[in-house]
Amino acid sequence: MRASGHHAWGVHQWSSGNVGEACRNLSRSDSLIRAERDAEPLRHRLQMMTPVMPALNTALHGDLVAARRLFEVVEFDAGDDPYAISIWGSFAVTAAAAAGDFAWALRAAETAIDADPDFSFTFSGSYPRLARHWAKAMSGGDPVTSAMEMQRIIEADDVLGLARLGDRPPETIAGRHTGPDDERSP
Q: Rounded to the nearest 10 degrees, what angle do helices 49-60 and 19-35 cross at?
């Protein structure tokens, strides 16, 4: 119960832009869940996003060294579980892209895609596939080809809800995820 409370409050703080407070609460939730992992494996499976949330928020808070260590632990804990690796990958590529680190993004994307080559996990699997094309374009690949492939992924199932953004100005799209509540688009 306490772990769920810390997780919910951490996610709320993250969505409100209070990244430091999000890090503290998500980290507390993660340690509580890890303490009960063996006793309650189903709960652990249902709360797989708990350990990646503090890692992402640590990256967004600017501590990339600590964030990478947290992501390494989550990747190690995922073992050979394709779903766990897909969840790890979707958050790791997001942190890497936010940091502008295309090498990190490409490594995380390739690891996640290799674990789920059939794209079984369409939501979490979309992020690594998009990040792979971004990283290739940023590291000297053909940006036009990368953009076309990204557009194909976005439109294929629209699992990320991006195709519906249509003609909206970029600042409203970014505000949907990063701006204060009163500036967010509906």
A: 150
